[in-house]
Structures are given as structure tokens and as C-alpha cells.
Amino acid sequence: MKEIKCPNCGSVLTVNDADYASIVSQVKNAEFNEEIERRMAEISEMKDAEQKASMAEADKSFNLKLNEKQQAITEKDNEIARLKDQITGLQNSMDLEIKAAVSDKEQEITSLKAVIGQNASKLKIAILEEQQKAKDALQRKDVEISELKAQARLDKSEAEVRENGIKEQYEDKLKRSQELVDYYKDLKSRMSTKMVGETLEIHCSTEFNTKLRPYLPNSYFEKDNDASGGSKGDFVFRDYEDGTEYISIMFEMKNEMDETATKHRNEDFFKKLDADRTEKNCEYAVLVSLLEPDSEYYNNGIVDVSYRYEKMYVVRPQFFVPLITLLVQAAKKSIEYQRQLVIAKSQSIDVTNFENALLDFKDKFGRNYRLASEKFRKAIEEIDKSIDHLQKIKDALLGSENNLRLANDKAEDLTIKKLTRGNPTMKSKFDEARQKDSPSLNAEKPDDA
User: Fold this and answer.
1) Are 435 and 442 a contacting pair, CB within 8 Å?
2) Which residues pair with 12 in a beta bridge?
3) Nearest of 305, 354, 321 to residue 142 by alpha carbon
4) Does the pLDDT of residue 330 top 80, yes or no?
5) How confident is the model at residue 419 (pLDDT cuts 50, 70, 90)?
6) Which of 3, 83, 137, 324 has its CA 20 to 30 A from that of 230?
7) Contacts of 52 (CB under 8 A, 6+ apart)
8) Which range, of 61-75, 206-220, 371-385, 434-448, averages the lowest pLDDT?
9) What is the mean pLDDT of residues 376-398?
10) How far apart are CA 251 and CA 286, in angstroms?
């Protein structure tokens, strides 16, 4: 709101800005018209032609300068319009470039996403295929293990059957041996008399060659003549199958008639017999003895003294051949068990190898999966970096657009007052014109353009 004071009565009127501007314009027009009339009157009253010419020249010069300034302003307006057109064209071009760049990057991102989706699908398919292969391999191995277990149970059943058969054979042979014991008891006196006439060693050698040699053609039964260890036994027995030794026995023969000075017991020779057996690397040790003839313990058959020394037996001469037969049969049976044990061990090794192979496959598969996962993660990181880069480009373009907008705002904000700032000639002309128009209003409002 503006206040207007009456110069005559001193009263104050309040008017709005629009009314005030209208009043000021009317006052300016009236004063301007009065000034023109006044100047025209002065010019008409001038009689001096020189003064008229000078005034005309001054007016011409003023009008010329005013035209030049108006022309400069017009050129500036044209330049501003041209700059606005250029800014508008540049902005449109920038918008098209931005849209094209964003479209290209969106297509590239879409393509990369499609490639990643395909790779993920291929990786998933490969993982499923490897898992199926591993599952199939495990199923095959489970079937093999089940077959092996069934075979092992079958072998165990067959072994039990054979073991029962062997037990029956042994029981039958023991029965017959007992019958022989009874028979030889009856012949004890006559046999003892016979042993006086020939040594026990010769008797045992004869028994072996006549009764066992035909059935053991590859066997070795000879006197132990190697005393390099400080001691030696009487006989060494070894037998072979397929070129491999499967049984060996160190024999010691003791006859009561060989020792006339003192009476010995069988156990007096256990230590030496065990030492000879160890020295000659024999599996069994057997003492064939006529010592302690009245001992029922030794007269009842084959006596196992393994509680004193490992795999050691004491027999009377009549049990020499039966004992060798029993040990040979047991050893031959152990060969078959050893073969089955080797087969079972090889099968166990196959299962172990399969488990190791399976563990190795799991390790390698896990490693390949980790590598694939790392590559997949790196690809995602690279895509994120590309997106960040595109975002930076977008921000830069938006910043450029903001700068163009600011330039446009500055161009639109360009006024005559700002153009005359720093131009004293133009500023003085406009100030002079402003003072001539309305001295009173200029004093009240010095900043009006």
C-alpha cells in the first residue's frame, strides 16, 4: 500500500500499488507533456539561429546516442533470444543423448542379466547332473556292497559248513587215534623192547618215509645238522604247496635208554626245543618222547604244552605220524582261509578305494562349486560397478542440465538496470532522464528503472 499527502490541505490518502502506479503514470505523462510544451515554447521564442542550430544539433546528438543505445539493447535482446534458442536446442540434444545412453545401458544391463540367468541355469543343471552322477555311483556302490555282504555271509556259511565237516573229520580221526592208542598200549612192552634195539630217530624216520612220504612228495624231512647257533634239533620237517612253504616242524626225539645216568622229565627239554625251533624258523615244535613211561598225562595221546611254549606238543612214538597228519591238514586248510582272507582284504580295499574316490570327488566338486560361485559373485560385482558408473554419468548429465537451467534463468533475469551497471555513460543518461521525468518521485523512489 502507498500513502499520498495533499500539498494544500495536508491530508493523507492510502492507495494500493496499482492505483499508485496509475497516478504516477498520469503525473509523469502530464509533467512530460508540460515539459515538451515548455521546451517547444522556448525553442519558438529563440531568435538566434545559431542557438536553434546548436539545440537541434544537441537534440540530434542525443537522439543518435539514444538510437544507438536502443539498437544495442535490441541487439542484446536478439542475442538473448538466440542464446535461449541455442540453450533450448542444446537441452533437447542433451535430452536425446541422455535418453540414448540410458537406453543403451539398459539394453546392456538386460543382456548381462540374460547372460547371468543362462549361466546360472547352466550351473544349476551341471550341479544337478553331478549330484545325479554321484547318487547313481553311490547306488551302484551300495548294490556292490550289498552283494559283497551277501557273498561274505555265503562264504561264512560255507566256512561254517566246512568247519563242521573238519571237526567231524578230526573227531573221527581222534576216535581212530584213540583206538590206535589202545592198540599201542597193548604193544607197549614189545615196542619198548624194539626201541632198545634201534634208536628212536631211526624209527621215526622209517615211519615217515613209509607212511607219509607217498602222500607228501614235496615235503622235506631230514636231520638237523646245522649247529651254527650253538644248538640243533633232531629232525626238521617242511612241506610246500605251489612252491610256498605252508608248514614247518622242529622235532626232538628222546628215548629213556639214551640217558642212563639220570632220569629226565619231558619238560626238561622244552626250552631247548623252543630255542631250536626259533633258530631254524619253524612254526611248530614237537617232542617225541619215551621219557616218563608211567605218566598217564603223556600216555593218553597228543599233549598240547602251548601254555608253556607256543605251538609245542609232546607225543609218544605211536602218535608221530597222526600228529604230522593233523598239523598238515590244518595248515592246508589255513591256506584256503588265507586265500579267502586275501580276497576279503582286496574287496575291503576296493570299498575303501571307492570311499576315497567318493571323498575326492566331493572335495573336487566342492572346489569347482566354490570357484563357480566366486566367478558368479565377481560378475554381479562388475554389473554393480557398471550400474554405479551409469548412475554417475546420469548425475553428471543432470548436473549439466541444472547448469543450463541456471544459465537460462540468468539470461531471463537480465534487465536494463543490470546492463547499465558498470557503464557510466548509459547510467548517467538514464539518471538524467529519470530526474527530468519526476524529481519528486525520484526523491521518494530512487531505485525505479
Assistant:
1) yes
2) 5
3) 354
4) yes
5) low
6) 324
7) 43, 46
8) 434-448
9) 75
10) 5
pLDDT band of residue 272 (cuts 50, 70, 90) is very high
Radius of gyration of the chain (CA): 67
Please say whether the beta carbons of 201 and 235 come within 8 A. yes
Task: List the Cα angle 119/106/379 in 5-degree steps.
Answer: 35
Are 301 and 274 in contact by the 8 Å Cβ rule? The answer is: no
Place of cell 566331493: 362
C-alpha cell at 86: 541455442
Q: Is 282 exposed, middle or buried (0-12, 13-18, 19+ CB in 10 A)?
A: buried
Residue 448 has pLDDT above 50, yes or no: no
Looking at residue 323, its pLDDT comes to 93
Grid coordinates given for 100: 540414448
N- to C-terminal Cα separation, the chain? 20
Amino acid identity at 88 = T
CB atoms within 10 A of CB 158: 11
Q: Which residue has the cell 500500500?
A: 1
Instruction: Say if residues 290 and 249 touch (Cβ distance below 8 Å).
Output: no
